[in-house]
Amino acid sequence: MEWVVLAAVVAFALVLLVVVVLGLGRLGRSATTVAPPRTVPGDVLAPPDADVDATPEPAVVVPTLERPEKPASRLIRLRQRLAGSGALGKGLLGLLSRDHLDEDTWEAIEDLLLGADIGVAPTQELVEQLRTRLRVEGSADARTVLREELVNLIDPTMDRALHVSGADGQPGIVLVVGVNGTGKTTTVGKLARILVAEDRSVVLAAADTFRAAAADQLGTWGERVGVEVIRGPEGGDPASVAFDAVKEGVDRGVDTVVVDTAGRLQNKAGLMDELGKVKRVIEKLAPVTEVLLVLDATTGQNGLIQAKVFSEVVDVTGIALTKLDGSAKGGIVVAVQRQLGVPVKLVGLGEGPDDLAPFDAGAFVDALLS
Ligand SMILES: Nc1nc2c(ncn2[C@@H]2O[C@H](COP(=O)(O)OP(=O)(O)OP(=O)(O)O)[C@@H](O)[C@H]2O)c(=O)[nH]1
Question: ipTM of the predicted structure?
């Protein structure tokens, strides 16, 4: 009997022990339970306060168009840029103001003129004229005589108007040619600004497909003044770009289309083929009204030889003389006109966007002598 009581007590104690152990285990587990994260339909595990609509809309950039300077005041504004060439004017005036003009003085005058790239024949003509006039008009002011003779040498009677209008409502077509690096693309961009300043509507053709950067460069020039630039694939056919641009110009009824071209001087036949084709293709739509040859004033005689090749390939009607600001050789204006029989119509006097000016013989000589 005692054994039965003892067994019952032990069994009760074991049951009690099992109950206590299980109870503690459940208690321990419930203490480490983590509440599930709060989720919102369609917002998987998003932080509770994230605002999905807060991403700002990309700002729409409205380009501000520039207002280019009117052409009339440009050559006067840029007068000081001719300071390099001004040495010629000052030198000549200094020599001509001497009391006695002996042979040595005349020789020094000749050297100055030749050094400024005026060319041999025009130098001799000018010296001859100066000698005669100063002898005959004894009391004449040397400055007045020199000014008149320099203006005559540059020939104020030449027609320097840019032909930028077409007939019968068609656009004027300006074909811009010249060796790479002379400032051709820059001149096309600056010319577009001159036309815009005169309230003309313009389309540009990036037909220099040889150098991809030239089309990008032109794109930027156009963007700044709200002018459309037609371009083609790199290495594509320049004539096809020129055609597309002129077609666009005709369809839109714009005033002027300006065509930039590649100026690879690989050989005369290649150049003739390329420029000839561009011109022919354009003229299926509208006549070319101006062929502008861009020449770098700092290249002297070398530039003149290149210019001659271009003038034999296309009928050049005007010259844009660039980088005259960096040259002490303003006499190149005379030399190039004599060699090609074509007037200088525009001069580049710096890298600023409005540093291209219509050329005027009187204002140019005044700048040289100031
Ligand atoms: N100082 C000065 N620099 C100029 C003038 N005109 C152009 N330039 C500079 O000459 C360099 C060549 O100009 P571009 O227009 O690229 O020459 P490009 O003839 O079109 O050359 P390609 O595109 O290779 O055919 C640029 O750095 C221009 O800023 C000017 O009148 N004065």
Answer: 0.92
